[in-house]
């Protein structure tokens, strides 16, 4: 194997597998043992116990701060996250504690270097263990922030072509010989012209057929991240480009244009996908984004060729938009969405987002809207992990409510929990259904 091939192989190593987690556990155990064991009695009797207690108290206080005071996430973090965090804190505490108890080690470079290396290894393995819980950065390449997909600048070459008129017939469209083998990703600012919502730059996947002449008018999937999240998440943890390129390869280069729009405004913000003092996220996603896409990209303008989807918060949001604005998004993909929009619990949500107005909440809550209205022209897919105890039951109830409201929906349950392993697999599995629904098989 060449040097280049070796580097590529290392970059493509998966770091969220069971085997990788086993390595993290083994290295962490070895590192903590190296940091903890010394023959000095004072250290064994007092220092070690003090350091372990300090680490445990620190993590417990951090958990209370995150879950009860700060509350940046609508749902509790998995216990595994706190366990790995505690091990990382313990490694740092051990090296600090030994620095005070074993002062001679400061003047012994080899020993000091070994201790720093052991602590660093534990911290990195803890980060790897946490990453494995969510499968957010599945490979070494992703962890280092190295893209594995083609990118293009957003310029006039991507704009709608004059005289494109109506939608090109998909059934008779023949890809030209010079069509690229893969799609490409570009980025652009999508302003909140009507909503005044402050959004981050969108990422946009354009399939191979978009880079042809003549160019067909393609359907659109607006795909949303979770909370916390960013518009890059589907490209990294979600394996978006690989999934879409594989679909396009089997469909003459045709696939939906995927707009990775910002549904929160910042990584930790939670505007609940509604219009409120937290930000007019609903108007941004149902007015500003569609208007901008139709003006700046060559797409099929018919709403029947448009879908909205997302993971976790993004899944909740997709069902909210499908129930509040079925005229904009008659097709949706709810992956591990919550049972209702939430800031942690119903009372907090009503108080902090709706000013205590229960009816305003009901006007934005899919469960209430599905009980009140009928949606005969809407269709959707619900995806959830079999091990997702937090979200599975609520999603199944919503699916039943959607059927009762006249929607054509189905539920896909996949191995895994609340992670990108489920969401990327879910997108891949649902893409044929979605392509058919949006007219790509016509």
Automatic annotation (TrEMBL):
Transmembrane region(s): 20-37, 44-66, 81-101, 110-134
SUPFAM superfamilies, A to Z: alpha/beta-Hydrolases (SSF53474)
Keywords: Membrane, Transmembrane, Transmembrane helix
Keyword Membrane in annotation: yes
Gene Ontology MF terms: acyltransferase activity, transferring groups other than amino-acyl groups
One Pfam family cited in the UniProt record for this chain: Esterase
Family matches, as InterPro entries: AB_hydrolase_fold, Esterase-like, Mycobacterial_A85_antigen
Name of the protein described by the UniProt record: Esterase
Organism field: Nocardia jinanensis
Lineage start: Bacteria, Bacillati, Actinomycetota, Actinomycetes, Mycobacteriales
